[in-house]
Amino acid sequence: MNNEEQFSKLRETLNKEGNWPKLYMFKFIIPAENKQIALVESKFSDEAVITQKQSFNGKYISITIKEVMLDADSIIAKYKEMDGIEGLMAF
């Protein structure tokens, strides 16, 4: 399945839930490098709630970001914006 198919399925699921705007939780895993972490966090507004958790061996950071999103397309746009960040895994 390619990215566009995944985004289409995500859009469909999000639109079924309705009630926009709503708080959405993004979850990412990224190598524990300050530059990469700052790059991820810079993509979100000052109102976003960001938490981090380091992996057991310290090589990776789990980043959870909660932000109010206006609609399904704004969530998908955010994932697409994150696409170029090296080593990023989104869940």
Overall 3D shape:
globular
Helix tally equals: 3
SSE string = HEHEEHE
* Helix vs. strand class: alpha+beta
- Per CATH, the class reads Alpha Beta
Strand order of the largest sheet: 2-3-1-4
Query: What fraction, in percent, of the residue positions are helical?
Result: 25-40%
The whole-angstrom Rg is: 14 Å
Number of strands: 4
* Uncertain residue ranges: none
- Strand-residue proportion: 25-35%
CATH architecture: 2-Layer Sandwich
What report would you give on this structure?
With 91 residues, the chain is α+β, with helices and mostly antiparallel strands. The protein has a single domain (3-90), classed as Alpha-Beta Plaits (2-Layer Sandwich), CATH 3.30.70. The protein has helices at 3-17, 34-42, 72-82, and strands at residues 22-31, 49-54, 60-69, 89-90. The protein has a four-stranded antiparallel β-sheet with strand order 2-3-1-4. The two termini are 16 Å apart. The model has no long low-confidence stretch (mean pLDDT 91).
